[in-house]
Amino acid sequence: VPEELVKEYPVYELSEEDKRRLKFQRNIGVSAHIDSGKTTLTERILYYTGRIRDIHEVRGRDNVGAKMDSMELEREKGITIQSAATFCDWVATKPASGDKEKYAINIIDTPGHVDFTIEVERALRVLDGAILVLCAVAGVQSQTTTVDRQMRRYSVPRISFINKMDRPGANPWRVINQIRQKLKISAAAVQVPIGVEDGLRGVVDLVRWKAIYNEGEKGIKVVESDEIPAEVLDFAKEKRRELIEQLAEVDEEMGELLIMDEDPTTQQLADAIRRATVSLKFSPVFLGSAIKNTAVQPMLDGVCSYLPEPSESKVVAHDTSLPASAPQVALQPASAAPLVALAFKLEEGRFGQLTYMRVYQGTMRKGQFIYHARSGKKVKVPRLVRMHSNEMEDIQEIGPGEICAIFGIDCASGDTFTDGSTSFSMTNMFVPEPVISLALKPVGAETPNFSRALNRFQKEDPTFRVHIDKESKETIISGMGELHLEIYVERMKREYNVECTTGKPRVAFRETITQRADFFYTHKKQSGGAGQYARVIGFVEPMTMDEETGKDTEFVNQVMGGNIPSNYIPACEKGFFEALEKGSLSGNTVCGARLVLNDGLAHSVDSSELAFRLAVIGAFREIYNAARPIILEPIMTVEVVAPSEFQSAVIGGINQRRGTIMDSEVREDEFTCVAEVALNDMFGYSNHLRGITQGKGEFSMEYKTHQPVMPQVQAELETAYKKTLGQPKK
């Protein structure tokens, strides 16, 4: 690293009070596959910690709906759309000594559908730990792998909770094996169930060697006994041995004890689990059933004992006064340090824009001035609140490592705020590209609410894009899937009273070139006054995705001797990127192309930036067909789960849609099939699947790559595009 890039920063030590406060502070997220019971689990946590007086189910008869699903639409459909934040206090039992200590926990409940990936993405960006919920029957499903990838991207340690232990066919040991094989992380159960399926009575804690039962109304009373039921005693001993063996693989101290053939003490075992979990090598697995109110409290103890406190997770920021290659700066959660906070989510509340913030270092007070790191604007904090789903509590100040919300600050998702004494900026989060788009048209006359709604949704959700098609002048919305766009259209009708009609969904096709082509192009136009003149010489070649930058298009300037004056080079580059926006095969964007400019010619009077821009566009269009262009379409990874008697029908249906079956697994009474299918062939699949499986099958899909389309499809797309262009003027 060059000398001038290394800058000394004052080191802020954590004071005793900081350490005490952070020790009892946890920020966790609950994430999993669709319908594994995330919201139901959060509801139980809130009830047992005394935040809510009563339990309501997600699709309950009383029509109240779970606390975390505060939107009307979420209650109706029984799914989570937005991640909601809340906080609670829990008196946890320490695994080693059995002492009780009070912890403050911030919880974010996240959606499971792949269409709302960004909600999970931004929740994990600001959390220190997570609970990965798995279904005891279905095990590791497609969305579980997606969530696992996101946890790895932000290195978030996790504990696993196998839910739905009361369902027929529940087999936690198979699920633990799947965690080891499919998610490639070492895992072992820290509990053994007492009783199976309907007869689930409680669990045996393998670390403290106690039997734990839930009694009282809604399982609010936890009863512990030292007497372990005879029917599970041998099994529990075997599983405790397995837990120690799994830990020995990832933890040195445990490995030494195992070699010496010594039995670890409770304290050593608990410390080893915590060390291995925080260093992302291991995940302790808890068992229980949220809906039957069994064994949720021991899992909360696990959150407090095994997940990291805010000071243990490594957080770095970039100093904007230095170039991008400078080393990152580590942040310390000390309350005396200068403030650094990250806005990770926006919501339109009743009182204007609500911004969710995670404070990384320093303290934020009501009425203090904070600076927006990107624009340098100075704003005052008018009101500081703590969120509980859609209700709030006013507070005077908030310390580092906490999550809060502020009103009336104009910013975008992923912005950093400081107190003006430093120039730090947190790195942004990863935003996936949209895969599907629809044309949107309001019914009747267009009202200002139409654009107001679209602007707000775009600001809240980076994966939701809106643009206006240059030719057809239609408003096009694009997003992560059919459900994603459907929900937004429904929200426009409810929240803004704007009813819309949508066109047929369109797939995001792309074009690319497959071979190199040279160009020699002169653009000249002679009319009265100054003309236009520019000549460009060079070639276009295919390019693969660059790992570092993540871009697959590039403009390379190799002009020597100043044949093209250097002030016209940016214009050439602009022309190339403008030409990429619309390929001449099907009018979609071109990807995977590199343009190398070797030589050219400029006229001392007639050359201008415009002339060079048009010359590059003309050159690209002229040789485009010589570079053998092809059309690419998005390929999705589709996972179908259905009862096994429909296996042949489901596989036949996927083959009809030109899918490639990658993997299929048959379990006791249902099977899972993973296939890769083009998104274009997936329209209307949900109705088709319901039809062939009597409504019992379900599927989820996720974008994988773009691949070339079949020749006949390419021909169809080309002719359809030529028709829209109209006849050239004679």
Describe this structure as you would to a colleague.
A hairpin with a 7-residue loop joins strand 7 (191-194) and strand 8. It is globular and about 100 Å long. It has an 8-stranded antiparallel sheet with strand order 18-17-23-14-15-22-19-20. The protein has a 7-stranded mixed sheet with strand order 2-3-1-4-5-11-6, sandwiched between helices. The chain has 17 helices and 38 strands. It folds into 5 domains: 16-306, P-loop containing nucleotide triphosphate hydrolases (Rossmann fold, 3-Layer(aba) Sandwich), CATH 3.40.50; 316-426, Translation factors (Elongation Factor Tu (Ef-tu), domain 3), CATH 2.40.30.10; 436-503, Alpha-Beta Plaits; 510-627, Ribosomal Protein S5, domain 2 (2-Layer Sandwich), CATH 3.30.230.10; 633-713, 2-Layer Sandwich (Alpha-Beta Plaits). 27% of the residues lie in helices and 31% in strands. The protein has 730 residues and is of the alpha+beta class. One of its GO terms (biological process) is mitochondrial translational elongation. Residues 23-311 form the Tr-type G domain. Belongs to the TRAFAC class translation factor GTPase superfamily. Classic translation factor GTPase family. EF-G/EF-2 subfamily.
Q: Strands, helices and their partners?
A:
Blueprint: H1 16-23, E1 25-32, H2 38-48, H3 72-77, E2 84-93, E3 100-109, H4 117-125, E4 129-135, H5 142-153, E5 158-163, H6 172-182, E6 186-189, E7 191-194, E8 202-205, E9 210-215, E10 221-225, H7 230-250, H8 252-259, H9 266-278, E11 282-287, H10 296-306, E12 316-319, E13 329-330, E14 340-349, E15 352-361, E16 364-365, E17 369-372, E18 378-380, E19 384-388, E20 391-394, E21 397-398, E22 403-407, E23 416-418, E24 424-425, E25 436-442, H11 448-460, E26 465-468, E27 475-479, H12 482-496, E28 500-502, E29 506-507, E30 510-513, E31 517-525, E32 532-542, E33 553-557, H13 569-580, E34 593-602, H14 609-624, E35 629-643, H15 647-656, E36 660-666, E37 670-678, H16 685-692, E38 698-708, H17 711-725
Parallel strand pairs: 1-3, 1-4, 4-5, 5-11, 6-11, 33-34
Antiparallel strand pairs: 2-3, 7-8, 8-9, 9-10, 12-13, 12-24, 14-15, 14-23, 15-22, 16-21, 17-18, 17-23, 19-20, 19-22, 25-27, 25-28, 25-29, 26-27, 30-35, 31-32, 32-34, 35-37, 35-38, 36-37
